[in-house]
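Progress against Task 2.4 (sequence-to-structure conversion) is shown through the following example record, which the project officer requested during the mid-term review.
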Amino acid sequence: MSVNCLNHAYQRRIADRIERLECVEPWDERPSGVLLEDVQAALFACACHHARNCGRLAQSLSDQASILHATGLARGRFLTNSGAVLFSDANEPLVSCRLFSGARHDGLIDSASHFSPYVCALEGALFFIMSHCRNAFGVLLDSGPAFAAWLRSAAGSLLSYAFLHRSYEARSAVRVSMEPGRLFVSFPREQVSTRFGGVSFRSSEEFCVDGISDVTGHAELFSCENALLAQNAYRFGFLDGGLLDCPSLVRKCCEWGFSLDVQEGARETGLLLARRATRVS
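Structure tokens generated for the chain above:
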């Protein structure tokens, strides 16, 4: 067989694989096997109260089952994977945090793993980061509460981005690595995305028409890897739409003397927040 024929056969296999993947239901929309009654009731009630106050949840949806089904977080007797991540416990950590004494990662100072629900994992990781930010960024903490508030917001942005864009079918957790001068958030990705431009989930127009929510101006919620998860994280108040405002985040990083870089790999994406030598005024 000629080289051209081999290349054509290889390209055909790749095209066939992409075609098959386009037909696969997104991970966040599939049934999880977790029963509806395994929802953390107190967390769910608080989230629903917030969503109603913000006009993101119809007042007519009153009971737990109807809300979960209307928002795509349940199918039949089971939560979808989005519902399980947002409102139930998990056996595997959603995020694992590590603090090292240097860039070689041979001196582990502290570590912690945090599990679903989503908001608990997010808050746990943020607590770890803020508890150890003096080890990583030292004297900058003397800049006062403004720096601490910005660092928490920036770290929250990186974690939220990781939770929403990661591949959940890759079983490894989001990883937070801290060392002197650096905060690195990395998350697993598939070599070929299964979402292909967002055609497999509800558009923003459909999302608003159903009378459940108004998310005008948050187009980024509809273009990430786990769009249903993103929509409901925003709906229930676990995600501030502004957290994904990348230009604003990069500008603020520069103001505080930090750089923000993305490191793309075949199976993993990393977000690196690093202290620069001099602060830009």
